[in-house]
Amino acid sequence: MKHLNLLFKPASSLCNMSCRYCFYSDISATRHTPSFGIMPPAATDKIIENIFKDINDGDEINFGFQGGEPTLAGLPWFRHFVENAASRKKKTVIHYAFQTNGLLLDESWCEFFHEKDFLVGLSIDAGKRFHDRNRLSPGGEGTFETCLRSKELLEKNHVEYNILCVLTSDLAKEPKKVWNFIQNEKIRYIQFIPCLEPPPGNPAPRKANGNVLRPMQFAEFYSRLLPLWIKELENGNYISVKLFDDVVNYFCKGNPTACGIDGQCSHQYVIEADGSVYPCDFFAFDRYKIGNLTESTPRELFDTEKVRNFLHEKPELPAICKSCRFFKACRGGCKRMRNVMYAGAGGAVCGFQSFLKKCLGPLRLTVRRVLAY
Q1: In whole angstroms, what is the distance from residue 215 CA to residue 343 CA?
Q2: Is 281 a catalytic residue?
Q3: How would you classify the pairing of strands 291-292 and 276-278?
Q4: Which residue(s) pair with 166 in the sheet?
Q5: Phi/psi at 48 (nearest 5 deg)?
Q6: Catalytic residue among 245, 274, 281, 303
Q7: Can you give the pLDDT at residue 309?
Q8: Nearest Cα to 22, choosing from 193, 189, 191, 243?
Q9: Which pLDDT tens digit goes with each residue over 214-228?
Q10: 157 — phi, psi (to 5°)?
Q11: Which residues of the chain have pLDDT under 50?
């Protein structure tokens, strides 16, 4: 298989936060079974067994864990998973990634992450006002200070981490405040995740609350953030902003490092807590289920007509795409991100196109001059 990317939901959609913009809560609410609870040990063992049936010596596996909130599965669950995978008699390279809201992190979790070389994605929105407006405890309290303490714990235990920040329409208006947060907290790696609109079919759709991002807000935010990033880079301080890295990797090095940046869906399958498999985190709906990893091997599930149809399925392209000089860099964009960063409803504007028109030139010149790309 050479390279296998799997994203596990060990606690399904269970969470100890009540975020106002949670896309997975929106998705799970449309399913016949909104939550599958905690993945049972027997299911975990069978899934790992089936995975390694298709693995050959020299292959690489990326195991990611997400939710809901994966820490709700408990630290023993993850110790068991890692020990089980390590016991397999295949010469494979295994990478681990873990996305968390940070509320349950303590010394034990951080020691485990360090020992097993986990990359942790910690969700913090860029500033107390923005964070506490949306990332709430079940009781309605803000969680910003708790999340910052978790960040400090990761640093204390030398755990590699990056910050995951939801880019809402509100936050997009404040790139300077976002940059101040990055500098004040000495953040080295950050990814901004566009705030999605609720999917159709949700029986109780959340209110927009001014959060859903729109294409020109996306473009304006990154266009105003870039000069701040360039100034810092020229001062010898490289800060990884995921979108900038992805654009540089693609346009300067020909290396697609983001899902959809070359117009192709990546192969990262989602495994729910009952073993159900979906082709993408954004499409973990009942109608997209492709099988169960407790019953089949990855090759039996992934090499199917249903998966191929999903990967190649594209909505009709708007007129703006047909004359776009950057068309090969997205081919219309991610199906789920269409209305928040690409051509938008009706296709009148494209945030990604607007950003590239304004910023690709300065970005290329700067990294070639400063980083010798």
Answers
A1: 7
A2: yes
A3: antiparallel
A4: 193
A5: -65, -40
A6: 281
A7: 82
A8: 193
A9: 999 999 999 999 999
A10: -95, 10
A11: none
